[in-house]
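Standup notes
- DV: blocked on the single-chain target, sequence here:
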Amino acid sequence: MNAPLSPEVAVTDQPVPQEDAETATKPSVIPSRGIKMPMDKALLRPRIRQSLRKNSYEGYEADAIMKIAREGDTVIELGAGIGYISTLIGVHKPVKAIHAFEANPRLIDYIHRAHALNGVTNATVHNALLAPRKGPPCDFYIRQNFLASSMDPEGGPEDGVVAVEQIEVRNINTTFREIKPDVLVCDIEGAEAEILPALKYDGLRAAVIELHPQNVGAPGIRAVFDAMHAAGLAFYPRWSHRKVAVFRREW
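- DV (later): unblocked, structure below
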């Protein structure tokens, strides 16, 4: 039996705005590519909610990792964001383990919620940065738009800094030796040109890397390609698209 309406609830004939109508019928999730992302208007701006519904959020990266990930793989993701890619892998691919690294502490709870909502139990979320060497915690600047947060203190007025957090810095090679990943997924807003050349690990079978030429320029792109070639991976144009570059070991 339905509970009676509270006397404080007002009944109105006013039309419900479209966005409110959507959340009234689907109050808790946004479906996307066969997974469910928690509805969180404070975190997910309208453009992101729309791209999730259209299955276009991180589209090229998602397409590539769905082709690459195999049964039994251990996947390491640098730059987990809202946990979309790690959730997608956990739901659709029978991998052994996923290690998702995200520097923004304000996103960690949401990533955990996304994993729990989709029954992903083989993912570990790390609130840490990887660097060429272990160091003291570094400043991370939280902005009004959480997804625009970064280690860069500069930002537009619409994305003003609201807090500064101290984030753990781990050594990339120590981390890779401990986790022993087969597949690398990397989307770290230009830091790939500094971090990946320091990698000394030959256990990768494949990598999906979103490049940021606007941040790193031609020398940075060349550094990433050289780093992947040094790791024994060759550029694979068939599964690459625009700024998403796929590398794989010959098989």
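- Follow-up: Helices lie at 18-25, 46-53, 59-68, 84-92, 108-117, 172-179, 192-195, 213-230.
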